[in-house]
Amino acid sequence: MLQQSVSSSFTIFYFINPHIFAFYLIQSIHLITEIMKNLSLTLIIVVFSLSINAQTDSCQVLLEKISGIYTGKCVNGLANGKGKSIGEDTYVGTFKDGLPDGKGKYIYKNGDTFQGSWSNGQKNGKGKFEYTLEGKKYTLKGYWEKDEYVGATDPDIAYRVSSVSGIMNYDVKKNESISELDKMITFSIKSAFSDFAPTDLKIDISSGQIIQSGKKFSIFQYFCPLHCEISYTILVSDTRKQCRFIIDIYKEGSYTITLSND
What we know:
- With 262 residues, the protein is of the alpha+beta class.
- It has helices at 2-16, 18-58; strands spanning 69-75, 78-86, 90-96, 99-107, 113-119, 122-133, 136-145, 148-151, 159-165, 169-175, 184-191, 194-195, 202-205, 209-213, 216-220, 226-236, 239-249, 254-260.
- The strands form 3 sheets. An 8-stranded antiparallel β-sheet has the order 1-2-3-4-5-6-7-8. Strands 10, 11, 12, 14, 15 and 18 form a 6-stranded mixed β-sheet that branches.
- It is elongated and about 115 Å long.
């Protein structure tokens, strides 16, 4: 009945005034087009919301304090890859098997933050901890192992040579240490391809004792970190050349250091 009425109305408009009929026909087409657009947009939003909710509900974060609302990549029901998890605390970064693993930023509920490396849900590697204590802001930089701060230097690095001058070549080797007696640092200076003991040799160490055996020198009973500075001069074309070598030892053990001016 309605269809007949509408059809009759368009027929009346057409016979009364074709221009009015065309106007109403165009307006009707525009109205139908807008309705279809709105329906399509609504359908897209609903589908997108359902997909997000499904991902959040099915993807787990195993670290309790950040478990809650998760958005990001998921594999086998666990957070894997880049993502963000909001619980009591918040974590933004990479996950592996439901735990922070890789690079990421952890935001504590009190506003303190840690940004750096993670492994199996624990701080592990280089990082930066920014915190507030008694109203003052502080920053702690360095390295962590199993959630514990271990210092400003990389615990995986045994030594670091910080300065070399007047020395053409040097070699540092960490030897296999069997007992406490093997924990000794032995160094030699070579000139003209043979061992050389400068008369003005100066050795400054932060701990331990120095003994000389022939033209070699050894440091024993030391503890780490050990700071060692070696300085001496050699004769080059009738002039004295100043030589200096500075090394820091971070891990105890047996070392052999060779300084060469050849």
